Structure to design on (653 residues):
C-alpha cells in the first residue's frame, strides 16, 4: 500500500509539473500598431524572451498573428544550446521516438518548436532539434532524496575509460545511433556494419566510425602530415579545432591525448599543415564550410557597442565647404556611402531585438589622427571596431588594440594581417581570388581547347596558369609586344569548346583579345576568363557578353529590388551604391556574428560562410595571423548583358 501511495504521489507530481509547463504562457493577438517595445513593456518581458518563444518575430510583427507571452521568466528554458538541427518528420515518427533518436527529451523538442504545444506532429513537418552543450559529469556519487527517510545512491561510471583509437568514437550521454552517425559524417548502416552485433548504445561505449580495414596506421599518417605546435586561444572548442584543422575530434585526440580532458585555453597541441609551395607560409587545413543563417542562431541579446572609424574629414569644415569637399574627394564619398549602409544594418538589427550603438570617429586620412582617437577614448568596452578604411590606418589601430583583444574589421582594403591576431580582413585578397579562379578553371576546362594570352613584359600571370594546362596553346607577343588578329583566331577550335585565359593586365592586350574573339563568337563556342571586371577600362560590354566573360569578384550583382535596396530607397530617396551595400553587408555580418556567439572570435571559428546582400564572408584564422575572408563569387556575363553567379558545386567551393 505504501508503494502504491508513493507511485500515485510521483504521478501526481509529474502531472502537476506538465500542467504547469503548458499553462505558463499567455497568448496575444497582434493588432495594427503593436510594436516590440510596446509588448515588452506591457508584459514585462524582454525582446529576447519573446523571440525565443516566437521565432517568426525575427521577421517582424504581423497583424492578426497569435504569439506566446511567458507568464514568468522561469518558463523559458535555460539549458545551454549550442545549435539546432533540422529534421523532416517521417511516417509513424513521434515525439517519443525522436527524443530517443536524438538523445533529447520531448519537452526539449517542444521548446524548440512552440507550435507542437498545440499542434500534433505531422509527416513532412520540418522541426528544429536542439543540440546541447556538453556538461562535465561529476566524479563523485550523486545522492538523491527520492522519499523522505529513504536515500538512494546513483553511482557514476568509472572515469578511467578505454583509450579511443583513431577511427573510433566514445559514445556520450543520451547519444543514439543517429547522433553518433551524424557527428562522424557516416550513415547508421555504416555504423552498424563496422560494429557487428551492435545493440542499444550506452554512455562510454567505444564504437568504430571508420571501416576498420581502412584505418591508416600512425606511421602512415606521419608520412603524409607535418605538424606544428599550436597554442589554444580563449573560447576555442573542439568544434573550432575540427573546423581549423579539417580533422575529426577522434583524430585530434589520437594526435593530442590531452584533449580527452577537454579543450583548455593556453594548452599546446599539434596540428597538421600543408604548404601551398615552398615560398609561402603554411596554412592550416580547412574543412568545407556550409552556409550559415545567423539570423536563425541569435542567442546573445546583450547590447552591442561598435566603434566606427571612417575618414569623413569634416572637422573644421562649414556645411558649404563640406559639400564642395564631398564632390571632390572620392574617399569622403566612399566613407559617407559606407556609413549610410551601416545605419540600415543597425536599424535592421534593432528590429530583430538586438540593440546596437555606434560611436562614430572621424579619422580623416591620417594615421596620427586614428592613434589620437585611441589615446583619448576608452576602447575596452567596444565589442568591435569597423574601420578605418585606409590600409595603413587600420593596421595602426589593430596594433594598438591587439593587447585588449578588440576585433578590428578592415572593410574595404587589403591589409597585412600577418602580425595582428585581432584584425579581420573583410576583403578577400588578390591571391585568394586568383586561387579560386584557378580552382574553378581546372574543372571547367577539362576536354576543352585552352588558349592562354600572355604579355612578355609581365610573365607572372602566365606562370600562374600555364603549369595547370600543359596542352594549352600559349599566344606570345612578337618583338614589338603585339599579338596579331591571325594568331588570336587561328588558335580557336570549331570542334570543341574554347576557353581563353587572359593572363595579362595591359589594356591593349585585353581590348584586342575581346574584340577578336567576340567577332568569332557566332561560329565558335568561346568562354573568356580574366582576373578583373575591367570596369575602369571602358571595354564594350557587348563584346564581354559575346565571349561569356567570366571572372572572380568579392561581391555579386543583385537586383535593385532586394529588401535592403528598397529600405535604403525609402530612407534616402536613391538606390544604394556598391559602397553603401558593402557597408550594410560588412556591418550586418559583424552584428549577427556577435549576436550568435559570445564574441566575434568565437563566431568566426564556429560559424561557416555567411551570405548577405551582395557580399559573402567566411573568416578563417591562419596560423600566427589574423582572420581572412575566404569567400568570393565567380561571375559570368550573359547574352542579355546581365551578370550571373556561376554555380560552383564541384569546383572546390
Amino acid at each position: 500500500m505504501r508503494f502504491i501511495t508513493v507511485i500515485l504521489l510521483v504521478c501526481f507530481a509529474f502531472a502537476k509539473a506538465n500542467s504547469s509547463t503548458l499553462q505558463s504562457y499567455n497568448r496575444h493577438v497582434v493588432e495594427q500598431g503593436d510594436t516590440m517595445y510596446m509588448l515588452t513593456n506591457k508584459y514585462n518581458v524582454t525582446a529576447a524572451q519573446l523571440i525565443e518563444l516566437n521565432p517568426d518575430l525575427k521577421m517582424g510583427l504581423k497583424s492578426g498573428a497569435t504569439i506566446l507571452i511567458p507568464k514568468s521568466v522561469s518558463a523559458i528554458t535555460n539549458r545551454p544550446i549550442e545549435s539546432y538541427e533540422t529534421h523532416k518528420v517521417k511516417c509513424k515518427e513521434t515525439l517519443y521516438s525522436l527524443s530517443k533518436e536524438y538523445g533529447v527529451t520531448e519537452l526539449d523538442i517542444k521548446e524548440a518548436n512552440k507550435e507542437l504545444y498545440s499542434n500534433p506532429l505531422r509527416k513532412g513537418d520540418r522541426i528544429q532539434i536542439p543540440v546541447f552543450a556538453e556538461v562535465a559529469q561529476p566524479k563523485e556519487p550523486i545522492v538523491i532524496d527520492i522519499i523522505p527517510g529513504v536515500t538512494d545512491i546513483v553511482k557514476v561510471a568509472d572515469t578511467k575509460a578505454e583509450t579511443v583509437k583513431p577511427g573510433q568514437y566514445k559514445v556520450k550521454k543520451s547519444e543514439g545511433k543517429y547522433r553518433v552517425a551524424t557527428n562522424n559524417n557516416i550513415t547508421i548502416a555504416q555504423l552498424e556494419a563496422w560494429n557487428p552485433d551492435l545493440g542499444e548504445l550506452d554512455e562510454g561505449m567505444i564504437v568504430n566510425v571508420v571501416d576498420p580495414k581502412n584505418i591508416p596506421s600512425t606511421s602512415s599518417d606521419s608520412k603524409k602530415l607535418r605538424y606544428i605546435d599550436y597554442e589554444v586561444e580563449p573560447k576555442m572548442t573542439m568544434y573550432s579545432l575540427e573546423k581549423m584543422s579539417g580533422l575529426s575530434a577522434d583524430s585530434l585526440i589520437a594526435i593530442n591525448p590531452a584533449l580527452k580532458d577537454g579543450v583548455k585555453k593556453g594548452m599546446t597541441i599539434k596540428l597538421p599543415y600543408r604548404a601551398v609551395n615552398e615560398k609561402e607560409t603554411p596554412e592550416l587545413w580547412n574543412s568545407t564550410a556550409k552556409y550559415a543563417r545567423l539570423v536563425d542562431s541569435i542567442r546573445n541579446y546583450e547590447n552591442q557597442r561598435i566603434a566606427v572609424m571612417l575618414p569623413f574629414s569634416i572637422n573644421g569644415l562649414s556645411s558649404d565647404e563640406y559639400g564642395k569637399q564631398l564632390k571632390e574627394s572620392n574617399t569622403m564619398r566612399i566613407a559617407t556611402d559606407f556609413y549610410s549602409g551601416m545605419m540600415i544594418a543597425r536599424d535592421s538589427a534593432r528590429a530583430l531585438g538586438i540593440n546596437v550603438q555606434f560611436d562614430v570617429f572621424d579619422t580623416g586620412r591620417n594615421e596620427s589622427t586614428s592613434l589620437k582617437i585611441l589615446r583619448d577614448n576608452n576602447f575596452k568596452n567596444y565589442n568591435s571596431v569597423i574601420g578605418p578604411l585606409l590600409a595603413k590606418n587600420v593596421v595602426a589601430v589593430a596594433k594598438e588594440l591587439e593587447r585588449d583583444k578588440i576585433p578590428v574589421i578592415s572593410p574595404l582594403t587589403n591589409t597585412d594581417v600577418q602580425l595582428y591576431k585581432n584584425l579581420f580582413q573583410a576583403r578577400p585578397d588578390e591571391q585568394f581570388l586568383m586561387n579560386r579562379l584557378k580552382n574553378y578553371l581546372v574543372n571547367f576546362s577539362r576536354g576543352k581547347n585552352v588558349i592562354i594570352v600572355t604579355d612578355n613584359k609581365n610573365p607572372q600571370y602566365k606562370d600562374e596558369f600555364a603549369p595547370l594546362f600543359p596542352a594549352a596553346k600559349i599566344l606570345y607577343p612578337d618583338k614589338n609586344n603585339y599579338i596579331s588578329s591571325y594568331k588570336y583566331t587561328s588558335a580557336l577550335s570549331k570542334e570543341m569548346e574554347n576557353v581563353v585565359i587572359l593572363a595579362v593586365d595591359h589594356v591593349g592586350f585585353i581590348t584586342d583579345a575581346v574584340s577578336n574573339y567576340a567577332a568569332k563568337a557566332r561560329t565558335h563556342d568561346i568562354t573568356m576568363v580574366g582576373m578583373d571586371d575591367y570596369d575602369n577600362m571602358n571595354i564594350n560590354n557587348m563584346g564581354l557578353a559575346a565571349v561569356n566573360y567570366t571572372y572572380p569578384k568579392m561581391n555579386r550583382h543583385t537586383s535593385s529590388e532586394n529588401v535592403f535596396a528598397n529600405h535604403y530607397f525609402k530612407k534616402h530617396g536613391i538606390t544604394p551604391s556598391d559602397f553603401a551595400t558593402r557597408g550594410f553587408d560588412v556591418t550586418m555580418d559583424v552584428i549577427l556574428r556577435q549576436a550568435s556567439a559570445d564574441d566575434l572570435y568565437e563566431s568566426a571559428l564556429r560559424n561557416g560562410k555567411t551570405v548577405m546582400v551582395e557580399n559573402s564572408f567566411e573568416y578563417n584564422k591562419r596560423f600566427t595571423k589574423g582572420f581572412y575572408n575566404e569567400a568570393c563569387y565567380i561571375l559570368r556575363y550573359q547574352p542579355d548583358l546581365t551578370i550571373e553567379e556561376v554555380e560552383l558545386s564541384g569546383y572546390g567551393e
The radius of gyration is 29 Å. Residues 216-287 form a domain with the Membrane-bound Lytic Murein Transglycosylase D; Chain A fold (CATH 3.10.350.10). The first helix runs from residue 2 to 22. Residues 352 and 516 are 53 Å apart (CA to CA).
